[in-house]
Amino acid sequence: MKCLIVYSTSHGTTEKASKLLSHYFEGNVELVDLNRSIFQPKIDRYDTIIIGGSIHLGTIQKKVRQFIKANLDQLLTKRVGLFLCCMNEGELAKEQFNKVYPVQLREHSFANGLFGGELLFSQMNFLERQIVTKVKGISSDVTNLNEESIRAFAKQMNEKIS
Length: 162
Description:
Blueprint: E1 2-7, H1 13-24, E2 28-33, E3 48-54, H2 62-75, E4 79-85, H3 90-100, H4 103-108, E5 111-114, E6 118-119, H5 126-136, E7 142-143, H6 147-161
Parallel strand pairs: 1-2, 1-3, 3-4, 4-5
Antiparallel strand pairs: 6-7
Helix pairs in contact: 1-6
């Protein structure tokens, strides 16, 4: 089984989550950061596609949206998992997840995951720091990346594929 984990990361949190996920996943796993990749990955080479992104300024990264739009028909013929890194929890996190992934893809996916997130103040630009300070009232790095959620997502995907 060949698996592709395709993601976009703004400050590195989704990359961390993707790498952790790849360690728990069974089979041959390839990671592709849409921000660094010159070419769109050819998803016909993979049995399973996992797509991940984070909430950045209220939405998921443009590269993730473009990847889904360009490949939606083919994704609906694959085993798919979707995850989101975000600082919100509970119903608000679920609302954000539902907002950023198309309903057709969510309903088709084998697993959907909310992995928590990070506000990496030290990596933000001036404007981002100003917004985060004003909205969240923080001025230093904060993390709630949830390794247990990542492990549970991998377990769910592994069970469905086996």
